[in-house]
Amino acid sequence: MVTADDVVAAFGRVLRATEDAQAELDALDAVAGDGDHGVTMVLGWRAVVAALDAEPPATPDVALRTAAEAFAAVGGSAGPLWGTALLRAGRALGAGGTPAAAAQAAVDGMCERGRCAEGDRTVVDAMAPAARALAGGGSLAEAASAAADGAAATAWLAPRRGRDARAPERVRGQVDAGARAAAVFWGALTL
C-alpha cells in the first residue's frame, strides 16, 4: 500500500534525479525549442517538494493533488501536462484505485490535456509504456525500463505535436525532451 510519506519521498527523489538530468533535458529541448525543458521540470518538482513540505499531506491522493497544483503553476507546456497527470493520478488513488490505475489516469490526463496520443513523439510515449507495465503486474523497475525504452524510441518517431512537429528534420535521431523527462521520473521512483 502506498502512503503519503511514500509519495512525498518519491517526489524528493524525482527532484534530485531531474536536477541531475537538467542539462541533458535542456540540450534535447534546444534541438527544436528554446532549451528550457530541464529548467522547467526542475522548477516544477521544486515547487512540488516545497508545497508538500509546507503542508504535509495525510493521504497519498492529497499528496498527488497538492503536487498537481504546485506543478501546474510553473506554466509552459510541462506545467499543465504534469499538473493534469498528477491530479488524475490523485483522483484515481482517492477513489480506491491501484498505483497502476493512477498511472493510467495520469496518461489519460496527459493525452487529453496535450491532445496527443502514444506515437506522436511526446511525453506520452514514455508514460504509456510505464503504465502498461504496471497494469500487467510489473514492478516499478519494469515500469521505469518501459519508460526508458519508450523515450528512446521517440528518436525515430515522426513528431505530430508541439515544437518538434515544426522542425521534424532537426529532431530526427534525437530523443524527445518530454519523454526523456518522464523516463527520469519513472527511474527515480525505483531508487
Describe this structure in words.
The protein is mostly helical and 191 residues long. The chain has one domain (4-189): Alpha Horseshoe (Serine Threonine Protein Phosphatase 5, Tetratricopeptide repeat). It has helices at 4-30, 37-54, 60-72, 78-94, 99-114, 124-135, 140-153, 168-171, 177-189. It is globular, with a radius of gyration of 15 Å. The mean pLDDT is 96.
Features:
mainly alpha; 9 helices; 191 residues; globular; Serine Threonine Protein Phosphatase 5, Tetratricopeptide repeat
Quick overview of this protein structure:
The chain has helices spanning 4-30, 37-54, 60-72, 78-94, 99-114, 124-135, 140-153, 168-171, 177-189.
CATH level-4 homologous superfamily: DhaL domain
Give the biggest beta sheet.
none
Order of helices and strands: HHHHHHHHH
What kind of assembly state do the chains in view correspond to?
single chain
What integer value in Å does the Rg equal?
Answer: 15 Å
**Count of individual helical segments:** 9
The total beta strand count reads: 0
Named at the architecture level, the CATH assignment is: Alpha Horseshoe
- SS class: mainly alpha
Q: What's the end-to-end separation, in Å?
A: 17 Å
Unreliable spans are none
Examine the coordinates and then state which fold CATH places here, giving the name of the CATH topology: Serine Threonine Protein Phosphatase 5, Tetratricopeptide repeat
Portion in strands:
under 5%
Please tell me the overall pLDDT.
96
CATH class: Mainly Alpha
Helical fraction? over 70%
Shape: globular
